[in-house]
Amino acid sequence: PLAEKRNLQLITQIDQAPQEVFTDPIRLQQILTNLLTNAVRYTEEGSITIACSTLSRDRWSISVADTGIGIAPEDQLRLFN
Fold first, then answer.
1. Which segments of the chain are extended strands (E)?
2. Which of 2, 45, 51, 80 has fewest C-beta within 10 Å?
3. How many Cβ atoms from other residues are within 10 Å of residue 49's Cβ?
4. pTM of the model as a whole
5. Helix, strand or coil for residue 63?
6. 52: closest CA among 75, 8, 18, 77?
7. Predicted confidence (pLDDT) per residue in 24-74, tens digit
């Protein structure tokens, strides 16, 4: 609803996603909610892409990318500590 309200295109790329993932569902939801909320908040126009793919039998990845302003390089180090 937040992306729709701001006329942002929400793109999902999940055709390579694993069929089943064993993780803490509450934590995964918190992580995705935070990433998507920030993407919507800092994207004035364009799109937000959620991609999920299987890397190997026991590894997978998920990413959120947007066309927003981004994070300054000097802040990226602090953010991911």
1. 9-16, 47-56, 59-66
2. 80
3. 16
4. 0.82
5. strand
6. 18
7. 999 999 999 999 999 999 999 999 999 999 999 889 999 999 999 888 888
